[in-house]
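Q: What structure does this chain adopt?
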Amino acid sequence: MTALDLSSPVAVVGAGTMGQGIAQVALVAGHTVRLYDAVPGRAREAAAAIGARLDRLVAKDRLTGADRDAARARLLAADSPVLERLDVKHELLRELEGIVGDDCLLATNTSSLSVTAVGGALRVPGRLVGLHFFNPAPLMPLVEVVSGFATDVTSATRAYETARAWGKTPVACADTPGFIVNRIARPFYAEAFAVYESQGADPATIDAVLRESGGFRMGAFELTDLIGQDVNESVTHSVWQSFFQDVRFTPSLAQRRLVESGRLGRKSGQGWYDHRDGAERPEPHTAEQDAPPAYVVAEGGLGPASDLLALIREAGIPVREEDEDHGTRLVLPSGGQLVLADGQTSVEFKDVVYFDLALDYRGATRIALSASQDTSPRTVAEATGLFQALGKKVSVIGDVPGMIVARTVARIVDLAHDAVAKGVATEEDIDTAMRLGVNYPLGPFEWSRRLGGGWACSLMDNLHECDPSGRYAPSLALYRHAYATDKREGTS
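A:
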């Protein structure tokens, strides 16, 4: 099955921001596009807006004048009532089936309604597929091609190839709440909000650690301010409800209060941050300069943080390595220990400072540390000075199990493995979707391989002991992956 022939017209029902973007993509690809909207006159306004964007593409030499004129000639505007309600979509689809032929492909861009439920009213439900574009549709490369329970394989393949012919990167997924991206991305927001709600750190510090240590393009607080707190919370609530209030997807009470107060982010002028003219952006917490330790003792290696040993030596700090079976840590001259975040808290041990996971310890510009009230000030100072000697800014946060980056990445990895086990998508498509849909520095499975098969499962197990609500219980798929990895490596 090939993509839609360019002689096939494309009807876009709904002329908002996303509808305009999809119409523009189809136009530029060479289709005739009919644009419809619920509000009288809005389709014509949308057509004019699309024409203006085509003009800007010509001005940037990304489209020729002749191609622009031809695209405008292929764009037709009409008015038709459309709402994001299941009953309205059913009525619309039944009307469409009375107009189009049985070979006409029908697609929905919905992110909140089930593709299966939308197609339930169709006489030929196998023709309906989900085509979930990301905003802004002309620029974002990813399209999730969603197969409902009744979607024919030929329809899904045709939609997939059409998206690719339109210059997009399609990924195939099953019709489950949140599809791929909105399902697996929930922990990125949820864990940042949880650290904030537990008084572990302020939004500016959490965002800085996610960017400068985790390698994410934006932090969770600044990203939700950009998306809109109401929009982000609505998606979270929809996924949570669709999974029968699964505790892994529980919405944030702090975000709920933000929405209730009307602080919706950039569009309202205030959100987690103040975006009004003249407002100063809060700075992340950064520790004062401390002296580096005279030496460190590395016991048992550092697992995903093993690159630190070379960096410490390059900074001129002697490292003595000892092969110990009982742990992986750095011992400081004070006798205190420096340990990679593992889902436990400093209060459980004597004189321990935890350090957070980094995407790349050589490239990271900030590292988060956490310590309990019982950790000696000298140990905290030595740990701070050590990372400062490596050229890193240091943010000391509260005694939060799993810290910031580590717990976030572990939960993303867990949900990704769970999604594959439940037939949502392939590992390759999930990695592609998360890199292109939300600009993650690595796909979840790329990250999982880099960290080692058992790392995420071990950290989640420890988090579950600290919080036995079920939120952090590792999925069966993650347990199986960790066991299989240990078996292959002969460590079990």
